[in-house]
Specification:
heterodimer; A: alpha/beta; 12 strands; B: alpha/beta; eight-stranded mixed sheet; four-stranded antiparallel sheet; 24% strand; globular
Chain lengths: 343, 320
């Protein structure tokens, strides 16, 4: 009876909440492994049961190490990967129901900021050509209109005077300027969502903050939703309202940024925070605590909790047997760990 | 300044310029510094400031387009710049100074088992037999934390962190007094980075090795640093003990660089430095940071010398 009441209340809450911009439900992205080109040899379970909602204008950081599946998740959201199962609903459209034209329109609504700006910009095209191309493809036929749009986008990323940059090739620009071009390109079609994949990890320390602040300003002035993918926890709080921690294909902890940084719950999140250094000479006096081993293979992930072989707090007979579901030990702080199972 | 025998490394007015069509690139332009044994110095700088070129200049690993290569390098009192190439190869590289190159995990030979690769410098430079060198390899693998059965594996069978450890084992195998690490952690994951820094600390305690750590990652560098040298536009602009430097850098560039580091455990709002470093083809006269410096005054049109103060040195007129 009580559970019924709770369910009713939750559904009432759901109706009251505005429809999220992006809603991902139980998403699985598996890549098939083939032996000698055709025989089936298992799956790489890159994303294995991920669910979350993203409201309009919300910023969220996905934090995880390489190989945890964050890029597969991102590519699926961008419509570049086909989900194996599960739903991706963006702006009231179900990704799996979209066909060619619909998919292209879908992609226009999402901007993508790549990690390595030099690799993301074709070296043989001028800045003007690079920025014009997506507009031509999206059907903007009038050249003046295109140029006006390019000017606007470049002014927004503070590349002025614009004329000086239009005829340059990417190699003539500094790393920070290249990344601004990439951001301008992502902004060209006025997307509702920006997916930024480690947008500052290739840049120098002094430029990094400038680019993060620029993205923050764009996010605020346009009311954009942003998914910020990173492995660097120290930059997250300057950018995102919420953090999702990803490990071996699962989101293992979801919380508001401040809450997660101050009160991390999952042992893996603890380890990530402990491994992040602030510049301090005292660091040299002590060793860092690092969980043993390495992230598991995604072909044959460990049974139960995927972190249990490396976890000092693993409960024998539970963590190595049953996969933990999302518990909510404090409001809006979700953690997939048996330690937080309600009594 | 003459050679002091108890110093491990002394560098005086080291210059390395490269020839390009546009003119000579002054990548390393008058660098002085010294290092005692069992110390770690971190050379911090942004890309293009010449920090990798400095490592190459120390080890005389020069490309073909060298325009100017001058200065003095003393290794344990011996002036190694005067050595000819053969003498330098035999006595300095590997035996005196080892290098762990940038992206070392991709620098391993893909078709040779890692154990053999690590043994090779020991066979060539220490004249050990194959069996002797393999037992040395086992010892080094223990120091860097690579499981011993990995000796028969190929690089592709190892994770990035393990490959980085193998590269480090290779640098250690000839037991040099000094290891130069060029960006040893920049391509690695957070937990792997922390692991590698732990390994470096342990080696420093156990083997008494000195390190020159070249990096742009200020936060991670503080894990190992006894001393810090800040490099800007081909020159070292500040040196000092890590304990003095990290809480209160002196040079305006160092101050702004430190202020640009996002911190996990404080709410400081990170700043950025406007403008770009000058071209090294025609660097400005006077202080090279002057164009971006908020404290600039008339004096800055003249090149500042290194001013010394309580064991710290800073190349800035504000500290005259």
């Amino acid at each position: 009876m009580i559970t019924d009441l709770r369910e009713v209340m939750m559904s009432v809450e759901k109706i009251n909440e505005a429809q999220p911009l992006l809603s991902i439900h139980d998403l699985h992205v598996w890549y098939e492994l083939r032996r000698f080109g055709f025989g089936h040899a298992g799956y790489v379970k890159a994303v294995d049961g991920v669910s979350f909602d993203l409201a309009e204008g919300e910023t969220v950081a996905v934090v995880g190490e390489s190989g945890c599946g964050k890029s597969s998740l991102m590519k699926t959201i961008l419509g570049l990967n086909v989900p194996t199962s599960g739903e991706v609903i963006f702006d009231n459209e179900n990704l799996s129901e979209l066909k060619r034209d619909g998919l292209q329109k879908y992609r226009f609504k999402i901007g993508y900021v790549q990690q390595d700006p030099y690799g993301a910009l074709p070296p043989f095209m001028t800045v003007q050509k690079i920025l014009e191309e997506p507009l031509i493809i999206s059907g903007m036929k009038n050249k003046e209109e295109r140029l006006a749009r390019i000017h606007k986008a470049m002014a927004e990323v503070k590349l002025h005077p614009v004329e000086d940059f239009l005829q340059k090739f990417p190699h003539m620009l500094s790393g920070g300027q290249q990344q601004r071009i990439v951001i301008a390109r992502a902004m060209l079609r006025e997307p509702k969502l920006i997916v930024a994949d480690e947008p500052v990890s290739m840049l120098d320390a002094s430029v990094r903050v400038e680019i993060l602040k620029l993205m923050r300003a764009l996010q605020e002035s346009h009311g954009l939703s942003v998914i910020y993918i990173t492995h660097d926890l120290s930059t997250v709080k300057y950018f995102s309202a919420r953090i999702f921690v990803m490990y071996a294909g699962n989101l293992i902890e979801k919380a508001d940024t401040r809450r997660l940084l101050e009160n991390p719950l999952h042992p893996y999140t603890h380890a990530l925070l402990a491994a992040t250094s602030d510049p301090d000479a005292r660091n040299a006096d002590s060793f860092k605590e690092v969980p043993p081993g390495e992230p598991p293979s995604l072909v044959n992930p460990p049974k139960g909790c995927r972190f249990h072989p490396r976890c000092a707090k693993a409960i024998a007979g539970l963590c190595d047997e049953k996969e933990p579901m999302d518990f909510e030990p404090e409001p809006n702080h979700f953690v997939a760990c048996w330690l937080y199972q309600p009594q | 300044m003459n050679a002091t025998p108890n110093k491990l490394l002394q560098i005086e007015k080291l210059e390395l310029h490269f020839k390009t069509r546009a003119g000579a690139v002054q990548a390393v332009d008058g660098v002085d510094f010294e290092l005692d044994s069992n110390r770690a110095v971190v050379i911090l700088g942004e890309s293009g400031c010449g920090k990798s070129s400095l490592a190459k200049a120390m080890l005389r690993l020069l490309p073909r387009n060298v325009d100017k290569y001058e200065g003095k390098v003393f290794l344990q009192g011996a002036e190694v710049m005067a050595f000819d190439e053969e003498e330098f190869r035999k006595n300095v590289r590997w035996l005196g100074i080892s290098l762990v190159p940038q992206a070392a995990m991709n620098a391993l030979n893909p078709v040779i088992r890692v154990g053999e690769q690590v043994a090779e410098p020991a066979v060539i430079h220490l004249g050990l037999s194959k069996a002797e060198s393999m037992s040395l390899v086992h010892k080094m693998f223990q120091h860097v934390g690579v499981p011993l059965d990995f000796v028969d594996r190929y690089p592709f069978e190892l994770s990035g962190g393990m490959r980085q450890r193998v590269a480090l084992a290779m640098a250690l195998v000839t037991s040099p007094n000094l290891i130069v690490l060029d960006e040893p952690t920049s391509a690695l994951d957070l937990l792997t980075q922390a692991n590698i820094m732990n390994v470096l600390k342990r080696i420093k305690h156990e083997l008494g090795t000195s390190f020159i750590l070249i990096t742009h990652d200020i936060a991670t560098s503080s894990e190992l640093a006894d001393e810090v040298a800040i490099m800007y536009a081909g020159q070292i602009v500040e040196t000092g003990h890590a304990r003095d430097f990290f809480p209160a850098p002196l040079h305006p560039y160092s101050q702004m660089l430190m202020a640009s580091v996002p911190r996990l455990r404080s709410d400081s709002d990170p700043m950025f430095i406007t403008g770009q470093p000058p071209s090294l083809i025609n660097p400005p006269k006077g202080c090279r940071f002057a164009a971006r410096c908020p404290f600039r005054f008339e004096k800055c049109d003249e090149e500042p010398p290194m001013f010394g103060k309580n064991g710290r040195k800073v190349k800035c007129w504000l500290h005259a």
